[in-house]
Amino acid sequence: MEIERFRDEDAEEVSALIVHTLRTVNIRDYSGEYIEDLILRMQPDDIRQRASWTHLYVARDGERIAGCGAVGPWWDREEESGLFTVFVLPECQGQGIGRAILGTLEKDGFFLRAKRIEVPASITAEGFYRKLGYVPKPGAEGPDEEGLIRLEKRRPEGSGTAVEIRKCREEDVPRTGAFYDAVVSWLDGHVNYPRWARGIYPSERSVRTASKAGEQYICESGGRIVGAFVLNADPQGRYEKAAWSRDLPEGSYLVLHALAAAPEERRKGVASEILRFCAEKAKEQGFRALRADVVPGNVPARRLFEKNGFSCAGDADLERGIEGIPAFTLYERNW
Fold it and tell me: What is the per-residue pLDDT across 186-207, written as a single tens digit (0 to 9) for each?
């Protein structure tokens, strides 16, 4: 299953998903008249309009959309956001799709910027949200005049950097390449721990290749790229030579490559947020571990992995043929 941003051409299918769910599941808690009135406001053009002011996501299960959910501003309040339009196909409920969608929404910039997040929840979905830490607004017990239960979640100060992580699209390639170039230039002026070469790797060319394969990701804050990485199942070398705690065949784990965070975002949690994203993505897709490798002398990267729950699997010659780097230090996180 892949969770990604809504595209205009998804509107018909998302509308049909919502209509089917309302008539099949929500009808147990509401009158037929209520449901049909709500359906009139869930047509394809309504979905497109909602996507114009929120970040709307869809969960793709093969060729079909199995669920959707949106996060966006709560009125015009900078420190408050809301969750909207969270639905999962009836036949797909109970499989963790709703939780995965909520996990994505809770990593979105609209969520992370807010001190308070409100959910106008249906009676049907109240239990689902309560299990995920949402509680009734003060004085808002029970359904309101719209038949909704007003739930909220409050976030403590300094609980995260407002970032959005998504796949790099074709139009993002030039600025992602420029981001990597800027990072390498900064490293060259300080300490180039990963031994990267500006314009060679990582570069616009490597970004374009990974983006075409659907493996390049970017991390944005306020429309600005503050992080980038590649996530795939290709170790790009002899990973079987490492002393892993679990003997997993290639293809049963994901590998993180080319992880970079903007120098000005150091110590703001961007890299840690990327690691959390990758681990959850690997779990969602049924992989058994997340692995990575670093140049042995890359002390900042080693500290990053270790503080985020990764275990060191020692050093190994991955036979990559990179001059001056005979071995790499391997890291793993299993579940």
Answer: 999 999 999 999 999 999 999 9
Q: How would DSSP label each residue in 101-131?
A: HHHHHTTSHHHHH-SEEEEEEETTTHHHHHH
Is the entire prediction scored with pTM above 0.85? no
Q: What is the CATH number of the domain that holds 119?
A: 3.40.630.30
d(CA 48, CA 31): 27
| Phi, psi torsion values for 78, nearest 5 degrees | -65, -30
Range of the domain at 36: 2-154
Q: How far apart are CA 326 and CA 306, in angstroms?
A: 22
Specify whether 193 is located in the same domain as 315: yes
Which has the closest alpha carbon to 277: 218, 212, 234? 218
* Helices 270-284 + 97-105 axis angle, to 10: 170
SS3 content of the chain, % helix, strand, coil (to 5): 35, 30, 35
Q: Provide the number of structural domains found in the chain.
A: 2
Q: Is 254 inside any structural domain?
A: yes
d(CA 98, CA 322) in angstroms, rounded, equals: 44
Tokens of 149: 């239960």
pLDDT tens, position by position, 113-132: 888 999 999 999 999 999 99
Task: Give the per-residue pLDDT at 142.
Answer: 87
Average pLDDT, the chain: 93
Interhelix angle 11-24/44-53, nearest 10 degrees:
110
Average pLDDT for 162-170: 86
Q: Where does a domain end: 131, 154, 177?
A: 154
Q: Which residue has the tokens 């170039």?
A: 181
